[in-house]
Each structure stands twice: as C-alpha cells, then as structure tokens.
C-alpha cells in the first residue's frame, strides 16, 4: 500500500507567511485599481515567492497492512475444576482457536489464568492487563474469556479497546452450600464464653431436596466433634469456653449435601489465642528486708497482674498494747483471703514469712488444699525458714518440695543452673548463665551471700548454690504447683552487685511457671507456621535426653513420622513442609497438637456457582456479551466498529484495519534557485509589459 501527500517545510513561521500573503494581495489589488497591465504577472511572482518560502515537497509513503489480534483467555483456577467446567473450557478453546486463526488478516494470542499465590483467588484482571500491555492496543479486535466469571481482582480490569465476550462455564442447575465465619475473635479469656458468629448459606439453583437444616460438627484441638442441627440462611452465635492458654484450634464442618458443587467450603478453622484475664496474685511479706520490694516491683510492672500485698510489720512478740486500729490502715483480712476467696488467686507468694501465730493452722491446711485443687504457691525463704517458725512446720510442709536442715549458709556463692536446669524452661537460656561446674572462662552472674540449706528435695532442682545445695526447687502437688527459692538475696542482682544478673527474668519465669503459662511447660509440643507458606517448625521441649519421632496425621488420614534432632539441651526441632493445606494433627508420646495450614476453605471455593456479575460493567462498556457454554459454542464473526458485536449463537470481533509505514520519501517540487528564477522572470515580464505601455 502506497500513499502520496504534500508536506511543507517553511523557512519562515506560518504567521509571517500569512502576513506576506496579505501584503501581496493588497499590492496586487492596488495594481489592478491603477490599471497596470502586469498585475497578473506580479501576482504570480508573489505566489512563486511564497511557494519558495513554504518549501512544498511531495511525500511518498509505503505501508504494510497489519493483522488484527484476538486475545483468548482461558481460566484454569481451582474453581474451574468443579463439575465439567474443564471439559467445557477445553472444547471451546479448541474450536475457537481454529475459527480465530481462520479469520482473514487475524492473529490469535493466548493467556491462561492460574490459581493466585497465597490464596489470592482468580487474578483474571491482572492476567488480562498484562496480556493487553504486551500488544499494540490499536490492533486488538476482541477479547474472549473462557471462565466461570468468578474473579477476585475486579479493580485490576483494564479499559478495553475492543469487545469483551465472556463464555461462561458451568450450568444453570448448579448450586452450593457453604459455611461462612462472619466474626471470630483472635483472643479469648480462659474460662469465659467467647462468641463466634457463623452462617450456613445456600447459593444457586437450590433444589427442594436440599432441605432447610444442616448438621454442623464442632471440634476443639482435634478432640471428638460434637454435632448440632442448624438452620440454613440464619445467623448463628456459637458460645465457646476456652480451657487453656495459648492457641485453641476450633474446626467447623458441615455434612456434605447431595448434589452441591463442592464440599471444600463446608469447613472452617478458627485459631483463638487463650489468655488469662488479669492474673491475681497474693503477696504476703513476713517482715521488712532489703529485698522486700523485689517481688512487688516485679508484679506491679506487669499490666496483666492484679496484686494484693500485705506486710506484717509488728510480729506478736512486739505487742505493746497499742490498738490495732492505730497501727494499720486496714485489718489483715485473713479469713477473707485464705478461706472465702482463696480460689480467686492464681498465685500466693510467701516472702520471708515466719509462722508466728498470725495465721491459724487451719488456714495453712486450706492453702495446701488450694494448691492440690490447681493453685500455686511460691516461697521465697529467708533465715526464718530454718527455724521452728518455718513454713515447713505448718500443714503447708506437706507439699513443699524440700525441707530445711536448720542451717543458714552465710557465704558468698555463685547461683548456677543444674544439668536439669539447662533443660527446664524456667532457667534454660538465661543470659550469662555459668556452666553447672567450673567457670570455663564464661562471664557469669554476681554472687549471693546467704542461702538456706535444703535436703530431701523431691521436685526438680533447677538451680544450686552454696556447697552445691539446692537453691531453686520446682514441684507439682496434685493439680497445682509449688516453687521454693532457698534465698532472700535475689535483690543483689537488681542492685548490680558484682555485675548483677537476670533477676527480673528469673523471678518472672518462676512466677509464670507456677501460674501454668504454656510457654514455660517442661513438656511441650509446639508448631510454628511460617505465614503465607506450608513450612512449619516443629519443636519439642522435654526434660529427657531424647525425643521420640512425631507422628503427623494429614488431612486425608495418612500418617508420616518425623524425627526431631536436638538443637540445644531439652529442645528438639525440625522444619517440615506440608504437602497441602488443611488441618494436621501432631502426636508425640502423650502430647498432641493440632495445626491449621492455609485456609480450610480456599478463596476459590467461597462462591463456586458461575456468574458473570463481576465482569458485567466491563462487558457493557466494551460492547461485548456474556453467553453460557452449556447453550453451545458460539461462532465468530467480523463486525464493523460501532455495530452490535453479539447475537444468538455468535460473537463478533471488530477489524481494526491498521497498517505500518515501512518507507517515506520526500521530493521537493522545485529547487530554491528555480523559485527565485521564476520570481525574477515574472517580475521582469511585468515590468517590460508595463514599460511598453508607457512608451506607446
């Protein structure tokens, strides 16, 4: 294809040439008014002069016609595997590809929509934008999408230069039932009701046989599920009571309904972190001493702790007849604290307390029973623990993990974790900890100066002190816990004596271990999921030297065994990648753990019934159409821009008739000297004619 046109390259700006042309017309008009015979030649001379200044040229263009482009997009996301949608897509893809390539001067471009990464769903908008960006928009004659119409990025859909046609897979009879979690808390208070709002919803052409009720199963932490009948389409509020701290995995599932599209959206998993609602601690200080405020400062610094603190300032032997009302702001409410409301406390701390008749023996029996029912007691012992006023001499001695020998070791010594303490979560990993024996050149903590000698330890001795005597002993009594710290010199670390030590961290761990914090359990099986992936770090914390393999039960019921190597004393860990998303169960010895990888109901299956609603605005704006493949594969026609681009059994593409210029040649009408010669000849001829007239 060739084209010829005239182009100009003026030596002067066009406004200047226009002014010169106006001046020339004026002069010619004057010559004509005066009757000069050479006015016509003068006019031609002016025209030649303007032509020379405008520099006209003839442009020869050689053009090559370009083919039209039709973009064919096939959706291969997970929802397209339901029913016979994949077969519908394959059949339509084969026929449409043949028809498009058979159109004159037309090329076919293909694009495929895969599953979005990290449960992003169908990213049709992004794929379509990328495919159009790779092609000249002026050549795009049409876009055909083979899909169920369910996309999850409608905001990414581009403006289209040609009609968009959606050939929708699926069937008009399709329907589905799904479980929808509307609201679920991330945290819940242990022992209090936590409400989860959910709904069972039907979509599509729901048959009458589906019924108006469904059976919902609920399982917490992999335990045996409980079944409940629920009404379809009704908002439900499910109250749950969390029994333990840390992660609580709640699994919901519906009995599959016959004929529904998929059961993948019949399940949901909710992870709720169980927390305590403000731990209540009772601190009883026996007498003022240098470290009395150690425990108080520690507990008051924790915003999650409610502290009740009493200090006995006047022991019985110092009675002087002064009325009690004049010595204290309030009376010591012994009956209320140790009888009526003792079960409201999570921990009772005795800091250098001596039995001097203030608390009757029956109260100590009640404290002992409180521990055996699940409470916790921590004893920070001073010199009085080695005397006849020792708590060991009370009924509380039945549950204390060691007894005093009666000796007070007043010498400087270095607190050390024992071999067992290197594994125990209370003492493992403390910053700057010295080895159990010797210094080995390690920078260690400051020394303490006093210790109560203990013997007959029946619990776990995790720290030792002077003369290798037990310093910190931890034990269980019934359902509760008891901790015994055989020194009142932990405050030396806080004051920085000889460099100090991790006083705050150690005392915090002791207190929280006694209150059964999950992170400080001696025997624990943990699973840390890497967000956005199927990678899991499985950790076993144990007081033993070895750990047996972990049995992993997959969602399909198959079992895999995983060996955990030791990474540090008492801690075994291994990274593992799950083969697929779902609910996995971990079991090792008598410990079990449930973990959820990915969503129980992937985004692709949230609304699986085919619909072109999300694409409707783009289809309308482009002049395209939506047609169901179950009604047949439409034919393809070429229609002019602006015409109707779809009809019964056919869809249209608009030829763009675009061409590419391959060569351009410019040829001047006359060279510059020829224009000047023409002007000179015309002016001379006009002068001769006018001069001859005057001579005659």
UniProtKB/TrEMBL annotation:
<feature type="transmembrane region" description="Helical">
    <location>
        <begin position="12"/>
        <end position="32"/>
    </location>
</feature>
<feature type="transmembrane region" description="Helical">
    <location>
        <begin position="39"/>
        <end position="58"/>
    </location>
</feature>
<protein>
    <recommendedName>
        <fullName>Glutamine amidotransferase</fullName>
    </recommendedName>
</protein>
<feature type="transmembrane region" description="Helical">
    <location>
        <begin position="672"/>
        <end position="689"/>
    </location>
</feature>
<keyword id="KW-0472">Membrane</keyword>
<keyword id="KW-0812">Transmembrane</keyword>
<dbReference type="InterPro" id="IPR029062">
    <property type="entry name" value="Class_I_gatase-like"/>
</dbReference>
<keyword id="KW-1133">Transmembrane helix</keyword>
């Amino acid at each position: 294809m060739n084209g010829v046109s005239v182009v100009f390259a003026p030596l002067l700006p066009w406004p200047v040439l226009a002014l010169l042309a106006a001046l020339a017309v004026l002069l010619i008009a004057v010559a004509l008014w005066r009757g000069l015979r050479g006015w016509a030649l003068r006019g031609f001379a002016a025209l030649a002069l303007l032509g020379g200044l405008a520099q006209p040229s003839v442009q020869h263009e050689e053009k090559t016609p370009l083919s039209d482009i039709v973009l064919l997009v096939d959706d291969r996301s997970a929802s397209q595997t339901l029913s016979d949608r994949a077969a519908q897509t394959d059949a339509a893809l084969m026929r449409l590809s043949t028809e498009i390539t058979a159109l004159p001067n037309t090329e076919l471009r293909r694009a495929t929509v895969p599953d979005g990464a990290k449960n992003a769903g169908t990213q049709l908008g992004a794929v379509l934008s990328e495919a159009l960006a790779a092609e000249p928009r002026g050549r795009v004659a049409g876009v055909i999408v083979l899909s169920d119409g369910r996309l999850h990025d409608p905001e990414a859909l581009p403006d289209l230069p040609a009609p968009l046609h959606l050939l929708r897979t699926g069937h008009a009879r399709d329907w589905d039932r799904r479980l929808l979690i509307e609201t679920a808390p991330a945290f819940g208070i242990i022992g209090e009701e936590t409400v989860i709002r959910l709904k069972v919803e039907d979509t599509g052409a729901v048959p009458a046989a589906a019924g108006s009720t469904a059976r919902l199963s609920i399982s917490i932490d992999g335990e045996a599920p409980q079944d409940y009948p629920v009404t379809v389409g009704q908002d439900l509020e499910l109250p749950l009571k969390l029994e333990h701290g840390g992660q609580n995995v709640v699994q919901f599932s519906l009995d599959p309904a016959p004929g529904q599209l998929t059961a993948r959206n019949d399940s949901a998993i909710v992870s709720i972190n169980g927390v305590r609602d403000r731990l209540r601690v009772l601190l009883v200080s026996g007498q003022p001493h240098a470290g009395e405020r150690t425990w108080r400062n520690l507990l008051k610094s924790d915003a999650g702790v409610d502290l009740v603190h009493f200090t006995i300032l006047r022991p019985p032997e110092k009675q002087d007849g002064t009325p009690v009302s004049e010595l204290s702001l309030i009376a010591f409410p012994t009956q209320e604290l140790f009888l009526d409301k003792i079960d409201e406390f999570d921990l009772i701390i005795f800091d250098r307390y001596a039995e001097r008749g203030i608390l009757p023996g029956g109260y100590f029996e009640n404290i002992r029973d409180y521990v055996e029912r699940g409470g916790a007691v921590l004893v920070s012992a001073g010199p009085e623990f080695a005397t006849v006023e020792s708590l060991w001499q009370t009924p509380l001695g039945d549950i204390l993990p060691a007894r005093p020998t009666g000796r007070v070791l007043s010498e400087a010594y270095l607190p050390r974790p024992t071999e067992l303490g290197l594994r125990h979560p209370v003492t493992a990993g403390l910053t700057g900890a010295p080895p159990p024996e010797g210094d080995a050149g390690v920078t260690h903590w400051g020394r303490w100066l006093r210790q109560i000698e203990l013997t007959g330890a029946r619990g776990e001795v995790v720290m030792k002190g002077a003369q290798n005597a037990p310093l910190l002993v931890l034990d269980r009594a019934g359902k509760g816990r008891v901790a015994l710290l055989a020194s009142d010199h932990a405050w030396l670390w806080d004051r920085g004596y000889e460099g100090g030590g991790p006083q705050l961290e150690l005392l915090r761990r002791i207190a929280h271990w006694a209150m059964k914090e999950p992170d400080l359990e001696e025997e624990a099986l943990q699973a840390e999921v890497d967000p956005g992936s199927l990678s899991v770090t499985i950790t076993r914390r144990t007081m033993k030297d070895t750990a047996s393999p972990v049995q992993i039960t997959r969602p399909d019921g198959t079992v895999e065994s995983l060996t955990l190597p030791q990474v540090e004393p008492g801690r075994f860990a291994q990274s593992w990648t799950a083969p697929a998303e779902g609910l996995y169960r971990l079991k090792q010895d008598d410990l079990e753990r449930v973990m959820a990888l990915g969503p129980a109901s992937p985004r692709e299956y949230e609304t699986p019934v085919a619909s072109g609603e999300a694409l409707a605005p783009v289809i309308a704006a482009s002049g395209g159409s939506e047609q169901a493949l179950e009604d047949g594969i439409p034919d393809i026609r070429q229609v002019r821009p602006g015409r109707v681009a779809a009809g019964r059994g056919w869809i249209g593409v608009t030829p763009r008739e675009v061409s590419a210029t391959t060569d351009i040649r410019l040829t001047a009408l006359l060279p510059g000297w020829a224009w000047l010669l023409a002007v000179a000849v015309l002016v001379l001829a006009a002068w001769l004619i006018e001069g001859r007239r005057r001579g005659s």
